[in-house]
Amino acid sequence: MSTVSFEAPRGMRDFYPEDMAWRNRIFDAWRRSARRFGFQPYDACVVESLELLQRKSGEEVSEQIYAFEDKSGRKLALRPEMTPTLARMVAARQSRLPFPIKWFTVAQCFRYERMTRGRKREHYQLNMDIIGSEDVLCEAEILGAAVDAMRSMGMPDGAWRIHVSSRALLGELLAASGIPERHHPAVFIALDKRGKIDDSEIADLLRGEGLDEAAIGKTFALLAVNSLDEAAAMVAADSKAMADLRGLFDLAHAMGYGDLLMFDIAVIRGLSYYTGIVFEAFDLQRRFRAIFGGGRYDSLLALVGGQPTPAVGMGFGDVVVGEVLREILGDACPEPRAGYIIGYMTPEQRSAAVTLAAWLRADGETVDLSLVPQKPKHFFAKAGNSSALKAVYIGPDDVASGTAQAKNLQTREFESLSLAQPVQP
User: Fold this and answer.
1) Are 106 and 81 in contact (CB under 8 A)?
2) CATH superfamily of domain region 17-329
């Protein structure tokens, strides 16, 4: 028999304790920032209806779905993203929900795609969505929470930017260039592939959609628009898409992150359900894929059978941001020291160590209790590599005196702890 591989399946990940330090850094920042901005947590099953995902996730994701049939012949899949599931859940209780709602989740998602740096076949992502309001303040709040999370992780503002555009604006620009609206969805999908395939291949996709050479040239020319003022000169003065974009930039400045936003008409997003403002965050040198992305999707609830309801949301994956953080901060992920580590010299001191650990835990402290006797140098070497703030080593003299010394591993100061302290109920 062949030897069983100890590696995780290709594209999947194991998380050893040192990996969990990075994951916790990211997840804790996500949850803290989502809560700080008033988002409520939710969750859902990881298995979804294949039909829902194929119809709502767009061309590229449909090709990447992990699909299967259950024992009853139902066509199911591992979710490749969370938004269609969210739409299904909201539509199921639409008449009872107090709109607008602000929900978030940290969900594991699966896509069978080509492996590159920052791209796995499974990942966790923060999803934040606001459903039930057309106001551009929704986009500003979601981006504000994402910025808060990035800063909380230790990402410096000078290392990244949020690229912002609008599908509605690009639609207006295409129409002003003489390209009929019926072609716009296919144009969006083709242009979103820029950077992934050659422009000649994108042109072939546009020809396949029925665009002539003049229309193709005008489409590529739009991607050279590099400012809101330049775009504004090409659309109607009362353009709602332009007003929303200007409103978002104004709100971002008022909320303290305006300098992180930049207009980028090339941001389109590949998923077919986006309808308005769209955004993607990148490291400044564009060495990685998008750190997070999202936008407005006002039509999705109606597409899954619910009532038409405005919505905006984002997905923030753990793989890319983890790579960027390591690039900037280094491979080590030091955790703040907290709690105690307790060791003892011989089996005769074990009872005292156990009693002290129980007392400290009952008092709300975290305690790492050594499981075997250790020599002092071995214990303190272990303590130095741990995340504990204070180290307590109990020997025969400590038991005899009824007092142990807790060493602060940062300040090197000592404090006395009574070994006679009763355990709190």
Assistant:
1) no
2) Bira Bifunctional Protein; Domain 2 (3.30.930.10)
Q: Is the pTM of this model over 0.90?
A: no
CA 14 to CA 22: how far, in whole Å?
13
* Dihedrals phi, psi of 402, to nearest 5 degrees: 75, 15
How far, CA to CA in Å, does 70 sit from each of 44, 48, 75, 77?
19, 12, 7, 10
Within its chain, how far is the Cα of 425 from the centroid? 41
Tell me the pLDDT tens digit for each residue of 282-322. 999 999 999 999 999 998 888 888 899 999 999 999 999 99
Strands 40-41 and 101-110: parallel
Query: How does pLDDT run across 67-112, given as a tens digit for each residue?
Result: 999 999 999 999 999 988 999 999 999 999 999 999 999 999 999 9
Name the nearest CA neighbour of 111 among 102, 99, 119.
Answer: 119
CA distance 78 to 66: 6
The residue whose two tokens read 């307590």 is 392
Q: CB neighbours (10 Å) of residue 258? A: 14
Max Cα-Cα span within the chain: 93
Rounded Cα gap, residues 77 and 52, in angstroms? 10
Question: Using CA atoms, how far apart are residues 190 and 201, in angstroms rounded to an integer?
Answer: 9
CA angle 83, 88, 93 (to 5 degrees): 125
Cα–Cα nearest to 266, from 254, 253, 278, 249: 278
β partners of residue 257 = none
Q: How far apart are CA 129 and CA 143, in angstroms?
A: 11
Class of domain 340-418: alpha beta
Domain ranges (residues) in the chain: 17-329, 340-418
Residues facing residue 104 across a β-bridge: 41, 128
CB 213 within 8 A of CB 222: no
The residue count for the chain: 425
Helix (H) or strand (E) holding 223: none
Q: DSSP label at 421?
A: P
